[in-house]
Design a protein that fits this description.
This protein is an alpha/beta fold and about 325 residues long. The protein contains twelve helices and ten strands. The protein folds into two domains: about 260 residues, TIM Barrel, CATH 3.20.20; about 45 residues, no CATH class. The strands form two sheets. The chain has an eight-stranded parallel beta sheet with strand order 3-2-1-8-7-6-5-4. It has a two-stranded antiparallel sheet with strand order 9-10.
Length: about 325
């Protein structure tokens, strides 16, 4: 996969915790993502023990989110995707024609994913400060997608430098708002365009807002990657269910993004044949009152009107006050 060769927006369905602890649900979700028009399915590769420790000290208690009151260990134990599932999920995705890749969260998960020949790596928003992890991932020489949900400019620059220091310039930055769900007014999608120019990378959106507005607007701002959490049915529950799209919603989002791509088009000032044909409805100079030979040409007897078969309207100011060299009748294209 080469980010610079993307011919259309690359749409990722994020599985995350939406398997709800059931491998069959995970498999069905992958197949539903294909039906919904996704290009890829993304996993997360960690265990509760590789990402945190089991502690009820205040630092480890989640506050101010939909997971209020849980400790980190409890959340990640509930949400993680068992590593023994990965090989099967990669296989199913390949069978469906989807690219399957993952977010690693520590060196052991990178090594594990390398064993599965993971084709792309994603650095999650909260891992953007983990420079040793980013260096390790970058050293594998594969494309890297980095979310920026909690990143300062310094964080972004350090992460990019880490990748490039390891000889890896296959980088995409995703605008992200790390709020679950994210308020639309905090999306700041114009940053997609700004990051592309500022950091000379492919940019996109990892979206936690509700609905399809943000992905469509992001596409119009030049996003080449869109990532959305995907679930079979929110009624199955789970840590991420409330801000995930179901199959119908994801399908409609994909359609809207593809239409937005068509609407954006390309920079081209030449006209299509249909536009050329439509020029007959332009204005041009016509005789609107009969004119006798030698009569003075005025704004009363020659006007710029539709259709566009006659002389260009820009000539009118040069004609006013001159005398007609021949007689012309109302409705005739004005002739010198």
């Amino acid at each position: 996969m080469n980010f610079k060769n993307l011919s259309s927006v690359f749409i990722i369905a994020e599985l995350s915790a939406n398997h709800n602890g059931n491998i069959q649900t995970a498999i069905e979700t992958i197949r539903a993502a294909k039906r919904a028009g996704a290009d890829a399915i993304k996993l997360q590769t960690y265990t509760a023990d590789t990402i945190t420790i089991d502690s009820d000290k205040d630092d480890f208690i989640i506050k101010g989110t939909i997971w209020e009151g849980k400790n980190l260990y409890q959340l990640y134990k509930e949400a993680y995707t068992p590593w023994e599932w990965h090989e099967e999920l990669f296989r199913v995705a390949k069978e469906e024609g989807l690219i399957c890749f993952s977010s690693p969260f520590d060196p052991t998960s990178v090594d594990f994913l390398e064993g599965l020949n993971c084709p792309v790596y994603k650095i999650a928003s909260f891992e953007i400060t983990d420079i040793p992890l980013i260096e390790l991932v970058a050293s594998k020489g594969k494309p890297i997608i980095i979310s920026t949900g909690i990143a300062t400019e310094d964080d972004i620059e350090l992460a990019l430098y880490a990748c490039r220091r390891m000889g890896n310039n296959q980088i995409a930055l995703l605008k992200c708002t790390s709020s679950y769900p994210a308020p639309i007014e905090e999306a700041n999608l114009i940053m997609i365009q700004d990051m592309a120019h500022k950091y000379d990378v492919i940019t996109g959106l990892s979206d936690h807002t509700m609905g399809q507005i943000a992905p469509v607007v992001a596409t119009c701002f030049g996003a080449k990657i869109i990532e959305k959490h995907f679930i079979l049915d929110r009624s199955i529950g789970g840590p991420d269910a409330s801000f995930s799209m179901n199959e119908l919603e994801f399908t409609e989002m994909v359609k809207a993004v593809r239409l937005a791509e068509k609407a954006i088009g390309v920079v081209d000032y030449s006209l299509t044949q249909k536009q050329i044909d439509g020029r007959v409805f332009c204005r041009s100079l016509y005789v609107v009152e009969d004119i006798q030979e030698g009569e003075l040409i005025t704004e009363k007897n020659v006007r710029s009107i539709r259709p566009g078969y006659g002389m260009h309207p820009k000539e009118l100011k040069n004609l006013i006050g001159k005398r007609a060299i021949n007689s012309q009748s109302k409705g005739q294209r004005f002739l010198l």
